[in-house]
Amino acid sequence: MRLPALSRLASILLVFAAYSAAQSQTQLNLMPMPSQVTQGQGQFLIDVKLAVAIQGLSDDRLAAARLRFLSTLGRETGIPFSIEPPSTGNFTLQAQAPSKPLPTLGEDESYRLTVTSTSVQLTAPNPLGILHGLQTFLQLVHITPQGFAAPAMTIVDQPRFRWRGLMIDSGRHFQPVPVIERNLDGMEAVKLNVLHLHLSENQGFRVESKVYPLLQEKGSNGQFYTQKQIHHIIDYASLRGIRVVPEFDMPCHTTAWFVGYPDFASGPGPYKIEPKWGVFSPAMDPTRETTFEFLDKFIGEMTALFPDTYFHIGGDECNGKEWNANPKIQAYMKANHIKDNAALQSYFTGRVEKLVAAHGKIMEGWDEVLQPDTPRDVVIQSWRGPQGLAQAARQGNQVLLSNGYYIDLNQPASEHYLVDPLGGEGATLTAEEKARVLGGEATMWSEFVTPENIDSRIWPRAAAIAERFWSPQSVVDVPSMYARMAAVSEKLNSYGLTHNSFTLAMLQRMTGSDDPAPLEVLASVVQPPQGYQREELHEYTSASALNHLVDAVPPESETGRKFNELAALIASGKASPAQWQQARTWLTLYRDNDAKLQPTLAASEITAELAPLSRSVSEVAAIGLQALDDLKAKHPVPTADRDKNLQTLKAAEKAKAILLDKLVPGVELLVKATAK
pTM above the 0.85 mark? Predict the structure, then answer.
């Protein structure tokens, strides 16, 4: 019998329903957590009588925000709200002054939200704060015995950092406009305010240039944003209070540039779009004046297209091999007393910075561009570590942190959450130096994402990072974060994001069945390897089909994480009888699933690779069940038997079908506990 889509994994998730419900009732499911919350009495009921009125000042951004708010609230509640602006209402929006036509770094983003049993008042210095307050109210809405409502309270809120970004890499795998739009909607929901678009790579140049049309005609495989589409993205973002910062990487990561314009490359060519991933040698020639003439015209065109004050020139991962192999470049370096490739890149960066400044912009670059003579107004984005952040701030440059926020590396949300721009080395800075830390950006590099699964790689973990950038530094409760992130993840469905729906669709395609229940069970407890291990396990190119189970599961197995929490409680002797039963129910499900799944796997090579993984998961679950029996009965387990099981678990830790079994850590804890 086919289960309804909404209850497919009920057998897996039900064991934690009561636990999760109890947690959610003890805290507000807000993310980012506001600066100050004062609980009130009662609740504001939401029905068709809701009337959202703008008092006093209004502008296009505020009017559009009101309509988006009603639309999102309508999707979440099913209530058909009137969109006609009322003269008065029980939900009022009041901005004290207009915001700038385009969002600008440093604008006041604070707001005050007052919810009573009869009314809602949202006030802010300008419309940007109103946008943020509306998103906070949407997170407050929940179902009650009386219908949908928001609890009475007063929230006074403002961001901790001015720059709260998400970088999306459209260079390696192109991300179409609808992908950008829905992720901008998600960014607005969690108060991120900078979209950093990585627009050129060895694998593709992604923006239409009318000055140098061969950039997209020969360097994009036909996948690029037209200038009209760029205008649309900027307008779409601006209405949501989000700045758009472009990045055109130089002098390296530039193979796609040279397909159409090889004359300013350092090597002899010929060049073609690079199908593989990695660090490659092609680099611009810093010793030719024609290189800077080319860049002057290009930067002039792109700074006119992108109105934000900041312009990112990349500057990372230059290996210098083409420079070393070019006799003319070597002769130039010798004649001009340029001692090494780092100094040559510094010379290049200095020239480019002057071009960017001449076109009225402030240059931004990855931390390789930081040199002792780097102009102080250049913004440094640190990807290599907090030491680079501290060095830049001490040197007088403004700085962003991305190290620790590489969401493409499939790290758990908790690891990202506990990284702080002003933690570690950042904590050692003086007050003046700390003021130069603008904030940070989560980075979504796209070697292993497509428009189909990119949302799952960004959300909901980006919400945890958004909290780190917005909320007070003292907000660091990891269990609370996970509970609130789960609630916000469900809210994000109403914004059109696909992070919660893509897995089922991909599994249905993989199996040719609309009810791939056994594969869903397996998928719920595995996750991709972390870091760069995936590249070591299999060779990929830009033409590789990302349609396997490793592409269909989220970066962090929620089921695996919760099971491991249970196992830790049991191993430490702190678990309740209900928690013991929960663990047993779960392990029984995974032990028995292999018998149901194996007969279906041979139908396709896409699923055939999962046979060893499924067997291993079943074996691990069986070991876990035996450990539970031994612990419950307090049977002494012979050392040899225990060591044998641990060896089996050690083998099960290794990736199979490029996936990790997340039952293993918890079962290891149970087996080791049998020694006590």
Answer: yes
